[in-house]
Structure formats: structure tokens, C-alpha cells
Amino acid sequence: MVSKVLAYRRHVDAHMSTLLKSGLSAETAALLRLGLAHEEQHQELLLMDLLHLFSQSPSRPAYDPRWPADEPGRSGRFRPAKFSAFLPTTVTSCPSRNSNSVSGLET
Question: What is the pLDDT of residues 40-54, one digit of tens each?
Fold first, then answer.
């Protein structure tokens, strides 16, 4: 089964390479960017699912064995943060609206 997936991947890669070298219209380039972003979301969701499953396993598998081990002691303890650390430092006007924007967030 893996060999079929790899063969399909080579097929797609070859055809995408040909397409990218052919010169794309603005519309096709925009659709390609959208499609790539969509596929990236699939990969991110798959990774999040994998990490969640690993976190639920009693055998405690590691996604990356080089990742630093957790500190001994109680994990997941809530520690309130100082609110001032999260306050934005700049205020800019938003050109598309009549409101002000604080670091991209409406005020």
C-alpha cells in the first residue's frame, strides 16, 4: 500500500512541477495558493490528532524523541499570568473601518 501512495505522490509532484514551470495566470496562481493552504491545514490537523492520541497513551510515546522531557512534579498546573504582559504596545487606525485597532484587534 505504501508503494502505491509513493507512486501517486511522484505522479502528482511531476505534474505539479510541469504546471508551475508553464507560467500561471493570476487566477490559477490564486487557486493554487488556496489549495496549498487547504492541504497545509489537513497536515496540521493530522499532527494535532496524532499529538492528542500520544498524550492519551499510557506508554507515553514521543512524537520527537529529541524533545525535552517534562520536568518532574505536578504538570498542567494553572499559573495566572500578569495581564500587563499581554497588553499591546501600539495603537493604529484601521483603514477599512472607523474604529481603532489595537495590534490588529478592534477596541
Answer: 999 999 999 998 998
Which residues make Cβ contacts (< 8 Å) with residue 77, sequence separation at least 6? none
Q: Tell me which amino acid residue 29 is.
A: A
pLDDT digits (tens, 9 = 90+) for 81-95: 666 555 555 545 444
Whether residue 85 lies inside any domain: the answer is no
Nearest-angstrom CA–CA distance, 16 and 44: 22
Q: Which domain holds residue 4?
A: 1-65
- By the 8 A CB rule, do 107 and 99 touch? yes
Q: Is position 70 within any domain? A: no
Residues 6+ apart with CB under 8 A from 63: 50, 51, 54
Q: pTM value?
A: 0.49
Domain count, the chain: 1
